[in-house]
Specification:
This protein is mostly helical and about 350 residues long. The strands form four sheets. A two-stranded antiparallel ribbon has the order 1-2. It has a two-stranded antiparallel sheet with strand order 3-8. Strands 4-5 form a two-stranded antiparallel sheet. The protein contains twelve helices and eight strands. It folds into two domains: about 150 residues, Orthogonal Bundle (Peroxidase, domain 1); about 120 residues, Peroxidase, domain 2. It is globular and about 55 Å long. Strand 6 and strand 7 form a beta hairpin. The longest helix is centred in the first third of the chain and has 19 residues.
Amino acid sequence: MAFTRLATIVSLALGLIERATCTNGKTAGNAVCCPLFDAVDFLQTNLFDGGECGEEAHSALRLTFHDAIEFSIHGGMGGGADGSILVFNATELQFHANRGIDDITSRQFPVFQALNEQSGLSGGDFVHLAGAVGTANCPGAPRLEFMLGRLAPVAPAPDLTIPEPTDTVTAILARFADAGFSPEEVIVLLSSHTIAAADDIDTTIPGTPFDSTVNTFDTQIFLEVLLKGTLFPGNDPQPGEITSPIAGEMLLQSDFLLSQDSRTACFLAVHDNQERMTTQFKAAMAKLQTLGQNTASLVDCSDVIPVPAPFPGPIKFPPSFSKADLQIACTQEAFPSLATVAGPAPTLAPVPAS
């Protein structure tokens, strides 16, 4: 009874905390977040083509990973989610794992400079705000958290801190563990590939998507990564690439190996569980985007992140495909019954560059 009364008192006290009303009429949990509403509008207009889930949104999410994962819980590496990949791009773009990042940074850097001049937004806050806003433009995505207050990066991160698609599963899991992530969290973060495309693995076919619903944040990626690979018509596979039986789609060697390895295979078994995928991804991203930061000194400004459009699902097999076309390594969980989209075998178009 005493506990019940205490819980009621705490709830009432929390209810009395007034939200800040910003000059634009919007409200935030903390007044310091108010200027970010204008920053979000600026990003949508100047980076995301008015709010599209296109190449820039995909790239912004990718950049958050390449920035933050350059960190070790044991010390001696980069500063984590500090924006060093943008601020010190002349150095970090030379890293092999950052091939293709130059397009992203060249597009983002002038937008960052403008927001830095207007509101003093640090490089780390910019990279991770842009990643959260860009992801919110994709239907089905979770509304990612955003914490404000990262200090300016002091130095570039060292090389060889970013996992690559040619790495072994053991090497990938070890690098993630060094940054503080479990094997399950590795697969959770792999969810980002549902809105990703490859520009630099095979430069002859830029913008090649990793699943057939590249502009929707969904579990389609975990279905299609299990497809038994064949060759792209007219293209030889490149290092790190396992060709997909869907024309115009690319499977990464690392993704496929993770889907088949006993340490990780069953973590991909979220095929038709959109809620589980997005909930886990949101939690893993909250951890990733504050790596190396003193979270006690950050302010929760998640209120400023747009609410994504709902998942239009359910996922389905692409036309002409079925369970018989899958290479399923996890036998502990029953594979769901999924319909197949009607029509001839698809040929996916590349994701257009902005």
